[in-house]
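User: quick one, fold this
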Amino acid sequence: MDMTHDGPHPTTGTTTFAATGAETPFLDLLARGAAVEAYEEPVPAARAAGASEAELAALEHAKRLALRVRSELADRRRREAELSALFETAHDLAGPRDLDSVLQAIVQRARSLLGTDVAYLTLNDPARGDTFMRVTEGSVAARFQQLRLGMGEGLGGLVAQTARPYVTEDYFHDSRFRHTSVIDTGVQDEGLVAILGVPLMLGPHVIGVLFAADRRARVFERAQTALLGSFAALAAAAIESANLLDETRAALSELEHAHEIIQDRSAVIERASDVHDRLAELVLRGGGVHDVAAAVSEVLDGSVEFIDTVPEAAASALRSGGHAVRHGDGWIAAVAAGDQQLGGLVLRGHPALDPVDQRTFERAAMVTSLLLLARRFAGDAEQRVRGELLDDLLDARHRDPALLRERAARLGARLDTPYVVLAAQPDAASAASADEEAAVRRRLWAAAAHLAATGHGLAATRDGGIVLLLPLAEGDTATELARRTAVHLGAAVHEPVTVGASAPLRPLPAADAAPAAYTEARRCLDALRLLGRSGQGAAAEDFGFLGLLLAGPRDITGFVERTIGPVLDYDHRRGTELVRTLDAYYAAGSSPARTKDTLHVHVNTVAQRLDRVARLLGEDWQSPARTLEIQLALRLHRLAGALTG
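Assistant:
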C-alpha cells in the first residue's frame, strides 16, 4: 500500500492522503457489511508493509470510527426491524384476526428479534388460582408446553408478584425466586438456562408473563428487555380487546334474550294462570301426585314425573338454592317440607325455562309437597289407630273379640288367620350419640309401620323397641318370618335389628294369648342378644327348654369360655375334634366303646382324646358337678353355632 503524502494538512498537521488512505479499507468493509473480525486486518497489514507510526495511528483511528459507524448502522437496522415488527403486530390488532393468531405472531416475532431459542407466553387462570402456558415458539418438550404453575412460583411468579421485568443468566442457580419440582422439571426438559420475563399488564393488574429464553448462558441487554416489554404491552392489548369483544357479544346475546322474553311474556303469563287454576282444582278435588305431574306436563309442553329420591348431586344444589336446578337434560324441583326432602319433580323435554315457567314448575312442586303431607298425616293417623289396636290386644285381656275383629277389618289387618307376635330391637351400641340412636328408632318405627300396613298386620312401639303382629302364610314358619323381618328392618334403617318371634297363635277370638306371645317373643329377642347374635331373627321353637334359661342378663359367652374354653381354643389352633368327641362321649352314656362307633375311630383314639381333655380341663372334669356344667356349655356352644347358620 502506498502510504506517501504530498504535504501537511492546513489545520490538523496530518496529510490529506494519509487520512484518506486510512479510511479507504474501512469504508470498503462498511460497504460490504463485513464481520467485526475483518476490521482488525488493515492495521496488521499496514504494519507488515512498513507503514510509519503516524500512518498506523491514523489507521487505528479510522478503525474505531468505522466500528462506531457499523454499530450505529446495526442499531438503526435493529430498531427499524423492531419498529416494523411492532407496527405489524399493532396492525394485527386492528384487523379481524382471532386472539390465538395474534398472540402466536407476537411470540414468534419476539423470539426472532431477540434471537432466542424459545419464546413463550403464560396467562393467569383466576378460576383455578394458577397460571398456564398459552403460546410457545421453539419449544420441543411436551411437558414444558403443558405446564401449569402455582401463583408466585418460578421466575414468572417473581415477575407477577413485583409487576417488573426479571432476567436470570442461569435459571437453576438463581435463588431470587421459588423453585418447584414441577417447574424445574419442565425447564430442564426444555434445556433452558437464560430466561427473560416481562409482565403483561391490564391497568395495575398482572394477567400473565411474556418470556424469551436461551439454552445457553446469556446476558439480555436493556434494549432487549424494553423490546420484549413492548410486545407484552401489545399482547395485553390484544387480550383486553378480545375480552371486550366477548363482553360485547354476551351483552348483545342478553339483549336478544331479553327481547325474546318480552315477546313471549303474554303467552307465559297466560300459561302460568292456566296451571295455577288447574293446580287449585286438583287440590280442591283431592287429586294425587300423578295428577299434578300430568297437568304440569301439558302446560309446560314437557314430560313431568315424581321421584321418591333425588340424586345427591341435584339434592345438594336444591338445598343450597331452593329453586329448580338443571340435572342432565332436564330440570328438578324439590318436593320438601321444611328441611325434609319428600322427593322431587323432574321435567324433561324442556331444555330452557324462562323465569315464569320456572316459578310455575316450582309451584307445582310445592303443591305436590302439600298433597304428600296430607297423605302422610292420614297415614300417621292410621298408624296410630293400628298401634292402639295392638296395644289393646296386648294389654286388655278381656276385650270383646268381635269388637277387635271389627276394628282389625276396618284397618285391613288379618287376624282371622294364624299370626305371630314379633319383638324387634335396634343395635343401640352402634349409635354414636343419643340423637343418632333416636334417629335409628324413628326409622325403625317408620319401616315397621310400613311393613305392618302392607303385610295386613299391626305395629306399635313398646319397651324401647317395636312389637309387630303379622299373619302367617300357609307353609311359612315363625322362624322364617322372624329372619325375614330382621333382614327387612335392618336394611330399612341401615343398622342391625334383632327380632324374636312367638310360636304361631290361633286366629281371634283367642285374644288373651297375645300378651303371653309378646313375652315369649321378648324372651327370644333377649336370648339372641345374650348369645351374641344381634341383627338376626329367631322364634321360640329354635331354643327349646333353653329359652327359659336364657332370659335375663346372664353372661352366656363368658360361661362357655370359662367351662370349655381351653378345649375350644385347642381345636381352633390344632384343627382337632375334642369338642365333637365330648359331644359323642356324653351322647353314648360316657362309654368309650360306643363313642368310637359314633366317631368311626379306634377306641384308643377316643382314650387319647379324653386324656387330652383331662389335661386341658383338669382331672375332675368327669365329676357330676363338672359334667353338668360341661354338657350345658357344649349345648350352648352348639346352639349359638346353629343360630349363626
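User: anything notable?
Assistant: The chain has a mean pLDDT of 77.
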